[in-house]
Design brief:
alpha+beta, 20% strand, Heat Shock Protein 90, 2 domains, 5 helices, Helix Hairpins, 7 strands
């Protein structure tokens, strides 16, 4: 029987192997499509409109690769809580974040509501915390049919701060094996990893994310 620390190390190695394999296949999909499209484009002379379409397709696939690269970088950085740890008042952070999320909410035709009291303060890197909360909120928005509602509520609960992100409304049918689905999965993993480095708890279900952090005041 393996010692407990040895078993844990084995699980970490296996988990890392699974992630590397998944990341390879996720990156390979848009890169292969882009390469094949450009290769076919050069096989024979085409009209200006056909060339334009091929370039637009390649641009879309390149954009997907850039998104994947950014998401993977966020996941790699999530294990480091950052050097810019400070006492963060969540109300102004969420207020600024709400301005950025409003654009996504408008595009998804969903409503966004943020609620936070003045005394909600945690120890974190404000930029990283805002980015991960924003990514989680974006995931909920994309999962809803038009007319849905996404709420972000931060409040004190005893000695803890409870941040709940919830989506209310009809859920879109999930896209099996879609790149966006894989992107969202990477971003959820990155958010949970970062919150755990802060000593917080993170739970998710189909239509909500719950974050619990220690309050400072």
């Amino acid at each position: 029987m393996l010692p407990e620390n040895s078993t844990q190390t084995t699980k970490q190695i296996e988990s890392r192997r699974e992630f590397i394999s998944e990341a390879f296949h996720t990156f390979n999909q848009p890169l292969t499509a882009m390469h094949c499209g450009l290769e076919l484009c050069l096989l024979k002379e085409r009209s200006e409109e056909e060339y334009r379409q091929r370039i637009e397709d390649a641009l879309a696939h390149a954009g997907t690769v850039l998104q994947l690269s950014k998401a993977v970088r966020e996941l790699a950085e999530a294990a480091d809580p950052g050097e810019d740890l400070q006492n963060v008042e969540l109300q102004p952070v969420l207020s600024t974040l709400g301005e950025d999320l409003a654009v996504i909410a408008e595009a998804a035709v969903v409503a966004l509501k943020l609620t936070c009291s003045n005394d909600v303060v945690v120890r974190a890197d404000p930029g990283k915390l805002a980015r991960h909360i924003g990514n989680l909120a974006s995931i909920l928005m994309r999962a809803l049919e038009p007319g849905g509602n996404v709420g972000i509520c931060a409040e004190r609960e005893g000695k803890d701060i409870l941040i709940v992100l919830s989506g209310v409304g009809r859920q879109r049918l999930p896209v099996e094996d879609g790149v966006q689905t894989k992107l969202d999965g990477i971003r959820v993993d990155a958010a949970s990893s970062y919150l755990w480095t802060l000593g917080g708890d993170f739970h998710k279900d189909r239509s909500s994310f719950t974050i619990r952090l220690q309050a400072l005041q």
